[in-house]
Amino acid sequence: MDPVAVVSKFPGVEAFDGIPDAWHWSPVSGLDFAAALSADGRHLFQVNARDTYDQALVAAILRTARENSSLLLENGALLSAPQDFHHPGRDFEVIAAARPGVHRYHEVQQPELQQVTWAVFPGYTCEFADPGRYSLEDARESFIRFLTPADLNREPVPFLRLWYDNTVTKGGTDGPDGILAAEKTLYREIKLLEGAPGSFVRFENFRGSIFRIEWNPERAWTLAEETQNSGPEPFEISGLLSFVERSLR
Q1: Which segments of the chain does DSSP mark as H helices, in order?
Q2: DSSP strand pairing (161-165 vs 200-204)
Q3: Under the phi-then-psi rule, with left for phi > 0, alpha for psi from -120 to 50, and beta for the rest, what region is 30?
Q4: pLDDT category, 154, cuts 50, 70, 90?
Q5: What is the pLDDT of residues 155-199, one digit of tens each?
Q6: Cα separation of 61 and 152, whole Å?
């Protein structure tokens, strides 16, 4: 499989200015793709941008990915952010990579190219758990639903795994693995604990710390850190929510 032979024939493709063996193409207005060969010449690092294309930023991403080819390609992770990354005027902290099967950039039209293409994008440290915490389904959901890598102007979306059960609303999660969730879901379920004794909210952050929150009429909200065997400690709701927000970043 020769990535150059395939990419160089894409409609409207052009050489990426300032980077050898790299290309840019834009099939429709507002949708930009850029890609560069890995250091071994056998893989492709690709950046997608929807209405947020910034050539200087994309160039920095592609250069960083190529310079760290072995780190991005050989760690075996489905979704990971192993490389620090900083760019003037941006708050990004890392370069992330998603393997074929997590992203589906060329799955339909160029399945052979798909197998050698790694999606690369800038991100924030708090968005990525230990690679071993992702099943294939988790990695796909995180990549597509939460990280939205084609938005190069995005704010951090912290990694959050959630378990909960509410005796009043009857809402909850099934199974031992929990669900990936947005911050707003966590805050909503914490607030719904009030008046629902016997309920709980349990969550895991990107560091692998796991916290359990409960409510009862005597002590109001309590929080215990299961991974440290600490707590439960009582909290007022405002202090609890502030702690939760800090723990996710």
Answers
A1: 3-7, 55-67, 69-74, 111-114, 136-141, 183-191, 237-247
A2: antiparallel
A3: left
A4: very high
A5: 999 999 999 999 999 999 998 999 999 999 999 999 999 999 999
A6: 11
